[in-house]
Amino acid sequence: MDINIITLNQVSKVYKVGEENFTALHEVSLEIEGGAFMSFVGPSGSGKTTLLNLIGGLDVPTTGNIYFKESGLSSMSRQEKAQYRRENIGFIFQTYNLLPVYSVYENVLFPLLLNGSKEKDVRDRVMDMVAKVGLSDQSKKRPSQLSGGQCQRVAIARALVKDPLLILADEPTANLDTENSLQILELMRELNHQYQAAVVFSTHDEKVTRYVRREVRLEDGRIKSDKNSMNGGSKE
Amino acid sequence: MNWDIARKNFYRQGIRAFLNVLVTALSIIALIFMLSLLNGFQAQATRNLVATDVGGGHYRAPGFDILSPMEWEDNTVRVPEPLLGLAEKNKAEVLVQQGQLYPNRRLYPVQIRGISMDQSLLSLPLDNLKKYDEKIEDIVPAVIGVKMAEKSHLKKGDTLTLKWRDKSGAVDARDILIVDVGDMVNPRVDDGVVWLRLDHLRAMTDRKDEVSWVTVRDYKGPIDGFEFKSVEALMADLLALLRQDRMNSKILWSILMILVCTSVFNTQILNIFKRQKEIGTLMALGMDSNRIVRIFTLEGALAAIWALVVAAILGVPFFIWFQGVGFDVTHLSEASFPVRETIFPDYQPKEIIYSLVIVFSLVVVAAWLPVKKITRLDPTLALRGRAIT
Known about the structure:
The complex is a heterodimer. In chain A, a hairpin with a 2-residue loop joins strand 4 (63-68) and strand 5 (71-72). Chain A is of the alpha/beta class. Chain A has helices at 48-55, 78-88, 104-114, 119-132, 148-160, 178-195, 206-211; strands spanning 4-17, 20-33, 37-41, 63-68, 71-72, 89-92, 166-170, 198-203, 214-219, 222-228. Chain A has a 6-stranded mixed sheet, with helices on both faces. A 4-stranded antiparallel sheet of chain A has the order 2-1-4-5, covered by helices on one side. Chain B starts with a helix and ends in a 6-residue tail after the last helix. In chain B, a hairpin with a 5-residue loop joins strand 3 (91-102) and strand 4 (108-115). Chain B folds into 2 domains: 2-51 and 238-383, no CATH class; 58-229, no CATH class. By secondary structure, chain B is α+β, with helices and mostly antiparallel strands. Chain B contains 12 helices and 13 strands. In chain B, helix 1 (2-11) crosses helix 10, helix 2 (15-54) packs antiparallel against helix 8 and helix 10 (289-325) packs antiparallel against helix 11. The A-B interface holds A 53, 56, 58-59, 78-79, 82-87, 89, 91, 93, 95, 97-102, 106, 110-111, 113-115, 158 and B 1, 8-9, 12-13, 277-278, 280-290, 378-380, 383.
């Protein structure tokens, strides 16, 4: 699947910090093809998270355009952006951002309910996804009863359950130990193969860069390099 | 679905939701308690004044002014014909004269009030006067109130000299016996007042069948030679005092309301503040902002409903209990309010509903406003927990 689902055209983002302007992104242009397994890599402040937020429609560029397939995100209303995220984007956050009062099952179910599904119609699908991330026996537990690695698995299941075209994962392994990080990356790679959802990481974790097929290096808000990984997809 | 999410969010917050509800419920109880106690206080003050002095109004001798003691002797008249025929339960004849009491060799200017012993319109503790004959023996029986007793250092059984002037202006004096010290409740009929039998006072002052005023149960129309003073006119000072007190109580109520608002708002804002990331997550998951606002507002409404329920569960038994035991205000004996007994709260449905509606609306607004603000901002701020700081 090599049709571009996301196109960034000369995108810049400037934040006002007090009296100063801080440019987080400088005229970034790139494409993300369907089914991609890629990462934005760079040190803190290089613009990785900003780029993910812009692609996810959580933030708006100061200049330039972002397109989802043929649709420009800039011309979308807040409601349309919400719909865009609801139907096409799965988010995975560094701090998991699970809904604290919901069980594992309910957290995974939630995006489907938002899309208008009835619980009875999607129960098996949710349980199947919970099983895929290896949490079948934890499905009734709440996030506070899970480890960090388990929480991130729930977040992955939640991102994938609605079968999105694009998953945006912001530093998904930053809060995990090495073993858990590798398990999560392995799981995401398998699910990427299985579901064909493009996965975009933002990370400065070298472990992640060894897993991805494409690596976009950012520095001071500019793309320093954009290359296909030589050993993309290989295990450590 | 919104309702399901709101319900689930609310009930599963556990202790946080419970504390939120409890703070609001206690605020409601405090508000109603304060208002009802004030109502009870004012109602009892008014009732006591009516029961001990004002009745349904006074037919007064022309020119009689309670604030001009030098003229009391000049303003007494015979009870007019239309009032003579009234049943004793519907009238109380009162003669007021000035005099001087000499307790413990001190001079104490007093108001001598004579009241008919057959009357049952006013509630005064004068039963001990009834057993004395119409004819004065060598000593005049008198009753004073507790406040008067305290100030003049008199007690039941004391004998002391009372001086007065009769109708012709001649000064006369006689020993009086304090046959009782009664709780008059109303300072107006207690402080500086010596109560005698009306027939005794008439005989002492040579004012056969004369009165200063006749208290009546209700207005009997204009009567020649008498001025009618309505309840409102007679209670003008108290009503003014109560009006002032009402105003003060409104200030107090406003302060309490502000405290309630602050407490509820603080609890709600804190709740929302802690849930900013959750709101950001909902936005990232694609929930549209109006729906988020609706869900959190519903949660606020649920908290408000539960607050009303908890307020009812905790408040109703408390209010019923308090209605029974009342609030002891004997410490107010030095105050000018005609209330010295226990105050019983007076629950006014209108005020209660008014307070409930305000608190309910406040809780809902406090849930709605910050979420509305957050959802209007950049979702990334909410995700980082920086939408409201």
